[in-house]
Amino acid sequence: MQIHVTRERPATWAEKRAGLRQGWIVPFAWLECGMDWVSYWLSRWRFLEVLGYLERFGVLVAVIFYFGESGDRLKQKHYQAWQVINSAQGRGGNADGVSLVGVDLSSAFLQGVKLKKATLARATFDEADARDAELAGADLENASMRSANLRGARLEGVELQGSDLYDADLNGAQLSGADLSGTNLENADLRDADLRGVKWKDLRSVKGANVLRVKNAPAFVAWAKEHGAVERGEE
């Protein structure tokens, strides 16, 4: 933050010149003296002081508007997420095979969204609410779904290779036939999830994942518990 300071009157050139003992320094001293006088006169110009106050006031107003409109920005983001999906699908979201590569749907409200066989590679679903979503056969390779709510979601046959499902809620999700190669399931909630026929041999991590009552995958549950997964009920 700049603070306006009124400078003291500097020495005149005659006064400064009288104190010089070496001739070679005269040009530099003359330049310095000139700059001192410019700074002095500018420090006495109240218009610059007013500009400084206006600058700080403008920053304050911008901060107030930024926080005041945070709710509207979140609503706008949710609206844009649905707009992207509906535009890609044509009418109301019923078509299959939609391409939404790299789309950012983080924190969006997507409950019950229908995106069967959609191409969602490298998409971002971080903290999205996608409860009961229908994503069967979708390509979610290398997608980020950290802390996403996917309770009861239909994820049969999805391609999740290399995706990040850290802390995701998959309680009751249908994952039969899904490809989890290289997937991160650390701290994920897999309670009551159906994992019949999933590909899990190359999982990146299951540390802290809750595998209580996982269905149709006894070998997976045994392996997961050996690698840090837990069986924990409601707290």
Number of domains: 2
Q: DSSP helix count?
A: 5
Largest sheet: none
- Sketch the topology as an H/E string, one letter per element: HHHHH
Description:
This protein folds into 2 domains: 13-68, no CATH class; 74-235, 3 Solenoid (Pectate Lyase C-like), CATH 2.160.20. 32% of the residues lie in helices and 0% in strands. It has 5 helices and no strands. The protein is elongated and about 95 Å long. Mean pLDDT is 81; it is low at 88-95.
Keywords, separated by commas or semicolons:
single chain; 235 residues; mainly alpha; 2 domains; 32% helix; elongated
Kindly summarize this structure in a few lines.
The protein is mostly helical. The protein is built from five helices and no strands.
Task: List the topology elements.
Blueprint: H1 13-18, H2 26-43, H3 46-68, H4 70-89, H5 218-226
